[in-house]
Structure prediction request, 242 residues.
Amino acid sequence: MTQSEPQTKFSRVMLKISGEALMGDQGFGLNPPTVERIAREVQSVHEMGVEICMVIGGGNIFRGLQGSAQGMERTTADYMGMLATVMNALAMQSALEGLGIHTRVISAITMNEVAEPYIRRRAVRHLEKKRVCIFAAGTGNPYFTTDTAATLRANEMSCEAIFKGTKVDGVYDKDPAKHADATRYDTVSYDDVLARRLGVMDASAIALARDNNLPIIVFSLDEPGGFRGILAGEGTYTRVQG
Prediction:
C-alpha cells in the first residue's frame, strides 16, 4: 500500500472505457502498448486498495449500430458487438495479470472456456478479495450499450462512482476539439446532461445512474496518472450528479 491510500474517498469504483481507447494510434483493433499503459493506470489505483470493476466497449473491433446501419439485422449485430467486448476484456486481463494483478473476466454471455458467467455474489466476492473484475458482453441483451452495462453492473456491485475515461478532461458544453471557446463543467446534473444531449453516456445509462444516485466522473484517460490522481483528490474532471 502507498501513502496515498488514506486520501481516497472511494473504496469500490467502476472504470468504463471505450473499445477505441485500446486502439492507440491505429484505426482498428488492439494496440498492446496502449492496453498495457491503461493496465498500469489500473494498477496504480489497485495499489491504493481500491476495488475495481471494469467495462470495456467493443467499438475498436465491431460496433453493432454501424453493422445495423449497413443492413445487418440489429440483434445479430449487437451480439457481434458483445463478443468484441469479450476480446477486449481478455486483452486487458492478460495485461493486468502480466503486472501481477489477479483479474476475472465475467461474461453476460456464457462461454465457460474463456470467462466466468455473471453471478453477482461471486463477482462481489472477487472484489472483496481485491481481484479486478472485467464485465464483458454488455448486459447480454441487444439494444443496450456498454454504457448501460457499466451503470447496471456498478449498481449491482455497489460501486461508489463510475469513472468514465475519455479523450478529454471532462464534460464540455460543445466539442472542445472543434470549438476553441468550449467551456468545461466542474459539475453538471444528470438532467442537464440529458436535456442538453452532452454525450457523456447514452440516455438509458444516465437515467439509471440518476435513479440510483450514482455519480459519474468524466476524466481524460490520456492523462498519465489521471485515474489515480482523481481518486487521491486531485486532477481535472467533471462530476455528473443529482
The chain has a mean pLDDT of 94. Residues 5-241 form a domain with the Carbamate kinase fold (CATH 3.40.1160.10).
